[in-house]
Amino acid sequence: MSSVTKRISEIKQPRGGYVKPSQFNIYKIDDGYILNENENIHASVIGMTVDYLTRFVMGAELLEAFKISCTGAKLAEELFGQKNAMKKAGKLLSDIKSVDEKSIINACKLVTYDVWYRNPMGARKAKGADETNPDKETIQNIEIMVQRSVKFWERYGPIVKDGFTFEPNGYTETVDSGDGDYLTADTIWDFKVSKSKPTNKHTLQLLMYWIMGQYSGQEIYKNIQNLGIFNPRLNEVYLLNVDTISKNIIAEIERDIICY
Fold first, then answer.
1. Residue (of 21, 12, 56) closest to 202 by Cα position
2. Up-side HSE of residue 207: CA atoms within 13 Å toward CB?
3. Which of 87, 138, 211, 241 is 20 to 30 A from 189 in CA distance terms?
């Protein structure tokens, strides 16, 4: 029993990967901005902050955009004895207004509660809200990446599903969890805020999502034809039409990786 990402870490891919990153078409977006070289908070915190703030700026309810953070705070307090976690998280949430400096700082602090939901065993070692204080360079980078993300969606959207899963029939005994970022009418999208280009782990993750969507029984996956990655840090879009992927590779992943 594994999540999609855990399952990928358990298996050995063929040379170059089941889906080589080089198969993707790359579209570079030039907005004239250059990000600051140095940031003083963890990359995962920056990634979540950019993701959630983008959702909020684009019209999601604040609580909905930061729901995992708020759930994490609830778990931290109720199950792990972190005093006043919910009160602190609520205060941080209420002080997120837009993409101004104060809102970005509060968002960075708030998303530190995600770890209590995503990886509670590692949460005690992770830096908490009080220790997370983005400097000016980091704040500027987050602001630019949120702006880039909003512009990306204006061009490649609209989003038809924000956060997707594969009930009732997409999961198996081998891969029993996993959820993706965004669906548009014909593309499964993954957001990466890494300094590196996509790897074959990222591309396999997307293909597994597509396969699981086809098996899920949900109508929303029927017209998905493309795998897409957007990286607002690099300001690059990666796209691949599923029809260009060998049927044999898809069958092998279905049989040996997801285990239908």
1. 21
2. 30
3. 138
Delimit the domains of the chain by residue range: 2-31+156-258, 43-134
- Between strands 236-241 and 226-231, the pairing is antiparallel
DSSP calls for the chain: -EEHHHHHHHS-PPTT-SS-GGGSEEEE---S----S--SS-HHHHHHHHHHHHHHHTT--HHHHTHHHHHHHHHHHHTT--TTHHHHHHHHHHT--SSSHHHHHHHHHHGGGHHHHH-HHHHTTS--TTT----HHHHHHHHHHHHHHHHHHHHH---SEEEE--TTTS--SSEEE--EEEE-SSEEEEE---SSPP-HHHHHHHHHHHHHHHHH--GGGTT--EEEEEETTTTEEEEEEGGGS-HHHHHHIIIIII--
Give per-10-residue mean pLDDT for the chain (260 aa): 92 96 96 95 95 92 94 92 93 96 98 89 88 97 97 94 92 93 95 94 97 97 97 98 97 97
What is the C-alpha to C-alpha distance for residues 174 and 138, in angstroms, rounded to an integer? 39
Most distant pair of Cα atoms in the chain: their distance:
53
* CA distance readout (Å), 165 to 58, 161, 216, 221: 22, 10, 9, 11
Question: Is 8 in contact with 201 (CB distance < 8 Å)?
Answer: yes
Report the relative pairing of strands 180-183 and 161-164 from DSSP bridges.
antiparallel
Residue type, 142: I
Kindly report whether the peptide bond that precedes residue 168 is cis, defined as omega within 30 degrees of 0.
yes
